[in-house]
Amino acid sequence: MPQMKPMNWLFLLIFFMASFMVTSTFFFFNFKKYLSSSSSYKLLPKMKYNYKW
């Protein structure tokens, strides 16, 4: 593997953490929406297995 600069590693780490926070909050609000609606309650087990952190 080619040696990467520390600046690139720092940027990748910050970018990964920011995207992780956005996606986790997004799925958290979707999770609350699914809990409130009984028709989409069957999709909850699929979300649990597809989005394991």
Low-confidence stretches: none
| Biggest sheet details | none
- Computed structural class: mainly alpha
The share of residues in extended strands comes to under 5%
Compute the separation of the termini in Å: 27 Å
Number of H/I helices: 2
String of helices and strands: HH
Q: How many strands? A: 0
Mean pLDDT: 74
- What is the alpha-carbon Rg in Å? 17 Å
What spatial form do the alpha-carbon principal axes imply? rod-shaped
Proportion of residues in helical segments = over 70%
Task: Count up the domains.
Answer: 1
Transmembrane segments: 6-29
Keywords: Membrane, Mitochondrion, Transmembrane, Transmembrane helix
Protein name: ATP synthase F0 subunit 8
Can you characterise this structure?
- The chain has one domain (6-50).
- It has two helices and no strands.
- It has helices at residues 6-36, 44-50.
- The model has no long low-confidence stretch (mean pLDDT 74).
- The radius of gyration is 17 Å and the shape is rod-shaped.
- The protein has 53 residues and is an all-alpha fold.
List keywords for this structure.
0% strand, mainly alpha, 53 residues, single chain
Short description:
It is built from two helices and no strands. With 53 residues, it is mainly alpha-helical.
Topology, pairings included?
Layout: H1 6-36, H2 44-50
